[in-house]
Design brief:
Blueprint: E1 2-6, H1 15-29, E2 33-41, E3 66-71, H2 75-88, E4 92-97, H3 103-113, E5 118-123, H4 135-143, E6 148-151, H5 154-160, E7 169-171, H6 186-193, E8 200-205, H7 214-221, E9 228-233, H8 241-248, E10 256-259, H9 265-274, E11 277-280, H10 289-296, E12 301-304, E13 319-322, H11 327-339, H12 342-353, H13 358-371
Length: about 375
């Protein structure tokens, strides 16, 4: 099968680019002819909340050869990108959707290419975590240009059905990332990061945004004793000041370690290798790529009962679910987790990993594509 993928790819950084790269490699490994198309400009600089949209020389990123064509705010590039994809003559175009801002650009490319081949989209989100006035019309426009969809949780599937009840979809969980390297020695890596080797270690990982509830975790950590430590690893979108204020007044502030920076691929493994548990105190969610990384490293998760998180975070098996985003409930769940036998969580995670490979996902995806008329 000839497959075109329109997504963020190298040299762009972030979870969507990582997903696109892993999907590209998995489909190519299955014997398909795959070609990647990406953005010449993803965001105007003034709209991007982080420090950089691009990988740096120090990043050990999976380099995917792609054509950098699509400018998100230049309609002429929508046409030229569609023409380049048509020239490749794919049997299917796969897009990714994670933010309504890209509805006009990616949606128009899908519309133009869809006159020639099947077009499906992998939906990371349908309804935005942080709403904007243009979300509904941009999302509706984008979805209307596709012949089918892949969702990675029942929450996203439910949101999709608010826009269309007839188009087919495949629901499969987020495959586990396996390109960040092997698990490192816990004690040695804790020493390397300058944290205690003998404390129960909580990890908050990934881009820091308001809906992810880091403030709730810092407050819950204030209720724990000195046998715990908290590692915060990820780049803040916006200002870190409110979190720093909570840390400064925290009775356990000496046990909070902050790595407020973009975490390069080759550095990801060390943060999960030191963790006893990864905490997702989200106020809202669909699914999270962080769960896929944590499960790859066999790190249990504690997550709030939002979106599709509990589809992979199963209480007593792969982690624990907190019924809502609440400081006291999160605190009690942390205590409950560490009172259990952690080996039980690890055994369940190892069993789950077998069905969540990228190879398995690629097979389900191609079967779905072939089923679309």
């Amino acid at each position: 099968m000839r497959i075109a993928i329109l997504s963020t790819f190298y040299p762009l950084r972030g979870g969507i680019a990582q997903y696109g790269g892993a999907l590209y490699n998995a489909l190519e490994a299955e014997g398909h002819q795959v070609k990647a198309f990406t953005f010449s400009r993803q965001y105007p600089d003034f709209l991007f909340p982080g420090k950089s949209q691009y990988v740096t020389e120090s990043d050990s990123t999976d380099v995917i050869e792609s054509e950098e064509l699509l400018d998100s705010i230049n309609p002429l590039s929508y046409i030229s990108t569609a023409n380049a994809i048509k020239k490749f003559a794919p049997d299917v175009l796969i897009t990714q959707f994670w933010m309504s801002f890209f509805g006009p650009s990616c949606g128009t490319v899908a519309k133009l290419v869809g006159q020639q081949c099947k077009v499906i989209s992998i939906l990371h989100n349908v309804i935005a975590h942080e709403g904007r006035f243009f979300d509904k019309p941009f999302t509706k426009y984008f979805l209307n240009q596709h012949h089918g969809f892949v969702t990675m949780s029942s929450a996203v599937e439910k949101d999709l059905r608010k826009y269309t009840t007839t188009l087919p979809s495949l629901e499969r969980p987020h495959p586990l990332y396996d390109h960040f390297g092997e698990i490192e020695d816990k004690v040695a890596t804790r020493k390397k990061l300058g944290i205690a080797t003998n404390k129960k270690t909580l990890l908050f990982f990934g881009f820091i945004r308001e809906y992810k509830g880091l403030d709730l975790l810092i407050k819950a950590f204030d209720l724990l004793d000195d046998s715990y430590q908290l590692v915060i690893a990820g780049e803040v979108y916006g200002s870190f000041d409110e979190y720093q204020a909570l840390i400064d007044e925290n009775q356990n502030k000496e046990n909070i370690f902050i790595f407020n920076q973009y975490i390069a691929d080759q550095e990801v493994g060390q943060y999960f290798s030191v963790a006893d548990v990864c905490v997702l105190p989200y106020r809202s969610a669909t699914q999270s790529g962080v769960t896929a990384v944590a499960l790859h490293y066999e790190v249990p998760l504690i997550a709030t009962d939002v979106g599709g998180l509990k589809e992979l975070v199963v209480s007593g098996q792969t982690g624990e679910i907190v019924s809502k985003a609440d400081v006291d409930l999160l605190h009690q769940t942390l205590l409950h987790f560490f009172n259990n036998d952690l080996n039980v969580y690890h055994e369940h995670i190892r069993a789950l990993k077998k069905d969540m490979s990228w190879s398995s996902f690629a097979k389900y995806l191609t079967e779905f594509i072939n089923s679309i008329n």
